[in-house]
Amino acid sequence: xxxxxxxxxxxWFGRLDKNGFIHRSWMKNQGFPDHLFxxxxxxxxxxxxxxxxxxxxxxxxxxxWVKRGVYEAGGFPVxxxxxxxxESNLRPTSMLYRNLAAMTVEEAIRGNPVDGVVLCTGCDKxxxxxxxxxxxxDVPAIVLSGGPMLSGNYHGRPIxxxxxxxxxxxxxxxxxxxxxxxxxxxxxxxRSAGHCMTMGTxxxxxxxxxxxxLSLPHSAMIPAVDSRRRxxxxxxxxxxxxxxxxxxxxxxxxxxxAFENAIRACAALGGSTNAVIHLLAIAGRVGVxxxxxxxxxxxxxxxxLVDLMPSGRFLAEDFFYAGGLPAVLxxxxxxxxxxKDALTINGRTIWxxxxxxxxxxxxxxxxxxxxxxxxxxxxxxxxxxxxxxxVLKPSAASPRLLRHTGRAVVFENIEHYRARIEDPALDVxxxxxxxxxxxxxxxxxxxxxxxxxxxxxxxxxxxxTDMVRVSDARMSGTAYGTVVLHVAPEAAVGGPLALVRxxxxxxxxxxxxxxxxxxxxxxxxxxRTAWTPPxxxxxxxxxxxxxxxxxxxxxGCDFDFLRGCRGAAPPRxxx
Length: 575
Ligand code: FES
What we know:
By secondary structure, the protein is of the alpha/beta class. It is built from 20 helices and 14 strands. Bound molecules: FE2/S2 (inorganic) cluster (FES). FE2/S2 (inorganic) cluster (FES) binds next to loops.
């Protein structure tokens, strides 16, 4: 039966008894010959392919290139499906299922004869879900992202996933775009396989996986349909075999230094606010005590260098051609904002990987002294409206609104917002603060990306393009605006957000990191006494499990019982 030492797959394939027969024999019905069971590394390929997750649909073909690499390196590749949570179709929000997907990854790894895994990531939540699951097993794991789509192009100009959709939708409401033009733009936006090509959550999370050292250098931004994406898959398969032999487990890569590098990279990228929640959750799986305040502290002094939509002008394809993430990490390292000795998946330090990284276009990856935004870090706000914190992305906001006090226009939930926002009689002007409640982790449920709520059409028609908005919701990484998100505790658990009423004064002061509701304590106490929690959206099933166990945004929205690393000791055999 060959060698293999103490590799976990030997607990299945390395036995000469009845159980070993079962494990090998049934696998052989697929045509695998005897020698593949001789103790060579068994590489699981966690595939998020699904036609309902369009951003990851090309993994059906891409994993074949991973397998070629695994075979060449002397491993035995075995592909398995995991729950695939696609952003564009899954209701009520794919975030509701991030933890479910993470559970399927974790249990599929632990319960099966695999020694290491390739994590096929792409669409927003697939990346954190796979990282969380693999981290809780702490096996050798390497990320293979699917890559971004080609740039969109509409009437001869580039358009970005999500970002231009929001603009088009508002243009239709404002009467400056026809419905037929709007529908024509659908095919112009999504032109190829791959995930959103703006610096949305998918681009952000796959870039941060690379910044944390979990994928091969300069891989995150290779367009999905570029031939180098296949070569990257091939090389990822080869490297997966090596990390098993080197026992390069997730915990050796995901150190505190790796997370700090990722937070600073996120600031330089102008990355998605969703990364805050996902990194907190991943850190919780590996026992790194990351907090919301780390985001604010570590992001200070880091400029946004990457000029990508939604904050800037360009798209992921341009970013890749300009040098991609290595060019950004090099700039961070040269200015003292990178832990250079952090280990990466190719066995080298991050600085060894990027010290000589070229930049081919300084319009796309700006020099340090000519940034897109001087302070790119995600801001953490506190005050009596968000005692446990809230976040705001300055690169997506209007500078003139970063210090603003206005009268609240309150929406009790998303249905109330939709029913009210188009009412011409709504008492609202451009100085108002739009406040949306009950869209947090438990309230929605799943914390939908509705925080960048559209402006009242009557203001859009007057040319107003931004207002201060406050909610316990998230926002698409492709979205923009002066939007305060992730208010914690959320309204549905009785956070102060639940107590805001029409006409209350809300103060946003980003330089002072303040979010304050100007209502006196006695009045708030009266309102608190009258408040009753909304019932769970569903009283049974997974939604109920989610409601009962999801943590608040400032803790990463993981389930309380999933935090921590449970390892991957082979479970007892059932035969
Ligand atoms: Fe999949 Fe945007 S919808 S990455």
